[in-house]
Amino acid sequence: MVLYLSEGLAGSALTQVPTSVPVFDQKNCVYTPHVLAMDVNQNFKVANSDQTSHNIHPNPNPMTGNIPWNLSQPPGAPPIEKSWKAEEVAIPVQCNIHPWMHGWLVVVKGPYATTDSNGNYTIENVPPGNYTVTAWQEDYGTQTQKSNGCGRKTRKCRFHFQAEVEITGNFLCSCRTRSTEPESIDSMTMSFSRSRRRCEFASAPNGR
Ligand SMILES: [Cu+2]
Question: Which of 36, 93, 96, 192 is least enclosed by beta carbons within 10 angstroms?
Answer without folding.
Answer: 96
